[in-house]
Write a structure and sequence with these properties.
With 230 residues, this protein is an alpha+beta fold. The protein is 45% helix and 20% strand.
């Protein structure tokens, strides 16, 4: 039964990767071909649009590969956490610097309850989690939506929330959204592994990740990470 389950997971992974790689790769090769033909009728504005499209597709592929490598290493027990105290504000600043190009079309704000708020973590992995969560919020909300990254102490944990004012998640899909390869009814492209990677990373830190619809609309993702001994 375990061998059959693993084979089904492998088949799902290959099917998902093949589907998700085809569209951006076709877009990249097509746009690159247009640029290399040096058509004199191609305006400078159009060239910039094509270059931006290539960049965005390549960036999306980079995120996909990062998530695939992360989940493979975690399943094989090959991830060694480099835990040390980190300032939450520093983490937030790094996250904002690594968001997708589409972030410029949204209002993204950060709010840390205490400038000296700290938690024990592998900074690179937690930043990967937060980048994934904010990019998800960007992807599933209309332009000019507001996305907030908030942190506050909660007992022996630091609570970090990512909220948006988008349409939220259909109630029937909420129990499944963190499952590997689950994409739900959304037409937005995605591998269906981003949230699974996020939850696995947070769990490895001794924390929790929850996802729900926020009061008044939108989505609320909450992660709790231990603050450490000091």
């Amino acid at each position: 039964e375990e061998a059959a389950r693993q084979e089904q997971l492998r088949a799902n992974l290959l099917r998902s990767i093949s589907h998700d790689l085809r569209t951006p790769l076709t877009s990249i090769s097509g746009n690159a071909l247009i640029l290399t033909e040096k058509n004199p009728l191609l305006t400078e504005e159009k060239r910039r649009e094509l270059s931006a499209a290539i960049y965005e597709d390549a960036n999306w592929l980079n995120h996909l590969v990062e998530n695939l490598l992360s989940i493979t290493r975690m399943e094989n027990g090959q991830v060694n956490l480099r835990i040390q105290p980190e300032l939450i504000q520093d983490i937030f600043d790094d996250v904002l610097a690594h968001l997708d190009h589409d972030a410029a079309s949204h209002t993204i704000v950060t709010n840390v309850a205490d400038d000296l708020l700290m938690a024990d973590m592998d900074a690179q992995l937690i930043e990967q989690v937060l980048v994934n969560l904010i990019n998800n919020a960007i992807k599933y909300t209309p332009e000019h939506s507001r996305i907030e990254l908030f942190a506050a102490p909660e007992g022996k944990f630091v609570r970090i929330c990512v909220t948006d004012d988008g349409p939220g998640i259909p109630e029937e899909e909420l129990p499944h959204v963190k499952l590997k390869f689950y994409k739900g009814s959304s037409k937005a492209r995605g591998s269906g592994i981003g949230l699974a990677v996020c939850e696995e990373i947070v769990t490895m830190h001794g924390g929790t990740l929850t996802l729900e619809n926020a009061e008044g609309g939108g989505t609320l993702v909450t992660i709790c990470i231990p603050t450490g001994e000091e």
